[in-house]
Amino acid sequence: MSVVVADHCSKWYGHVLGVSDVTWTLKGGIVGLLGPNGAGKSTLIKMMSGLLRPSRGSLTVFGKNPFDDVEVRRRIGYAPEHEKTWDTLTALELVEAMAKLAGVANARKAATSALEQMGMTEAMNRRVKGFSKGMRQRTKLATAIAHDPEFLLLDEPLTGVDPMARIDIVEQIRKLGEAGKTIIVSSHVLYEIEALTSDIVVIYRGQVLAEGNVYEIRKLIDQHPHRIRVECDQPRVVAAALASADHIARLVFERGAVLIETRDPDRCYDQLAAAVLDGGVAVSSLSSPDNNLGAVFDYLTGDRR
Amino acid sequence: MISTIARLTLKRLIRGQAMWVALGIAILPVIVAIVLRQAVHDRVERLAFTLELYVVEMFVLSVVPALFVASSIGEEIEDKTITYLWSRPLSRWHVIAGKLLALAPIAMGVTLVGWLLSIQVASDALAPAWTIVGIAAAALAISMVAAGIATLAPKHGMALTIIYMLLFDVPIGEIPASLQVLSITHQARLLAGISAHGVYDMTDRIAPAITMAVLAGVWLALGLWKIRRTEA
Q: Residue A37, Cβ neighbours under 10 Å: how many?
């Protein structure tokens, strides 16, 4: 049985489009829901968690409409994107209350276990008010898993989390996936999702643009020139060293930087390193605009704009 | 489910500031009673000031339930913390019921404490039993009104409830016209038997009680109708 079935599902907020005519089926596993801010990820997740209902079409979870069917929500764990929570409660009180509301018999035990799982053992008796963003994220995740749901909806769970906490949270989500949970994780950052799963759904302007393996999406990127931005004290020296290479598609000078477009990133990085060393160039920053999801959207939506 | 939400609500109330603000407002009639005691030395004469004390109490009744119930529901929806509750396997009316279960008795208790103390200070006597019933019923009814208004307009739920009470309910209750039947505070006064001459024995307490219940019920029903459709 499919976990989620969306059939021509659309959602408007007045005249603003949230999700447009999405037809999509989720069988299981960990799936990354990717899209820039405002793409419709949270709207889709909220519809799956029963907080919103489709304006048109239908969306079911385990064959039921989660907005109207109370019981199906027992099988769903939802961690919202927003940070607001009941700050005057301790993490344990908060998670325990959520577990109780989900019908867990021994809610205290379940909450303690969920918080321990999320690395909150030390802080569980502290009030949420004083928590860092990472601790809040962990607490939110604990509220989502405390009642042991089959289906987890995690809306931007890695936003604002420091690198160490990120590794830990990713590890916990992967463990939950290995335990057989179906998990949807939304993000607007490609590498966050790549660390979790290779199955992704790309959503943009309320529409599902692509779904499948993240590497296939990557291939789409690779078919296009790859961009490298070099911030340095001598951008013209760098450009001169690379200008004659056959893989260079374009060189664009910016203030204190040069933007390189190449068809062969590997060769380009090698030659760039040599040019920097030979020319005694002081590089202050090296970045690839293509390493973010925006580039994927640009490629996928190029003909729609 | 409802009791869990009630406990959660109480815990948050106790740790927040609303309780202290409400207690501060609730002692207003006591302050008036102290002033009255200083100004009028004859105890029997002071008993006739029950209506004046009730006028101050109407202000307390207009503010305290709004402070507890409307702000709790409104903030929950506006801050989106309601998403934690609505994503759980519970009906939406459970949230309103849980909040009322926790907060309406507190609103009743706080307003009654102010009333009992003010009567005690003013007349060296216990407040008449029916005045206690009238004020408790009014606090409960206004809590239901606050729940309805906060659900309909969560962003300004508390302010709108206070405005509704102070600019509609209380004034029309004072107008000697049939329109005053729509005033909860007027019905509460009838139930309590408070008049310009003190407290008297009402022969019909059923009608004001039913009217008050209907008025509060309409607001609550509107709120419950709205919350079924509200999306987070």
A: 8
Residues A206 and A253 in one domain: no
Tokens of A297: 């959207």
Burial class (CB in 10 A: 0-12, 13-18, 19+), A47: buried
- In which band, very low, low, confident or very high, does the pLDDT at B87 lie, cut at 50, 70 and 90? very high
Q: How far apart are CA B205 and CA B190, in angstroms?
A: 7
Asked if residue A298 is part of any domain, the answer here is no
Question: Is there a single domain that holds both residue A278 and residue A163?
Answer: no
**Residue A271 belongs to a domain with what CATH number?**
3.30.70.100
Domain boundary among A186, A217, A248: A217
User: Does residue A182 lie within any of the structural domains?
Assistant: yes
**Is B231 touching A (CB cutoff 8 A)?**
yes
Instruction: Determine the structural domain holding residue A58 and report its residue range.
Output: 4-217
The answer to whether residue A301 sits within a structural domain is no
Mean of per-residue pLDDT scores for chain A:
87
B156 versus B48: which is more confidently predicted?
A: B156
Is it the case that residue A303 has pLDDT exceeding 60? no
Name the residue among A53, A73, A85 with its Cβ closest to that of B231: A53
Which chain B residue's Cα is nearest to A82?
B80
What would the pLDDT profile of A265-279 be if each residue is shown by its tens digit? 778 888 988 998 999
Selecting from B11, B83, B87 the residue whose C-beta is nearest the C-beta of A76 gives B87
Token pair in block for residue B19? 């309780």
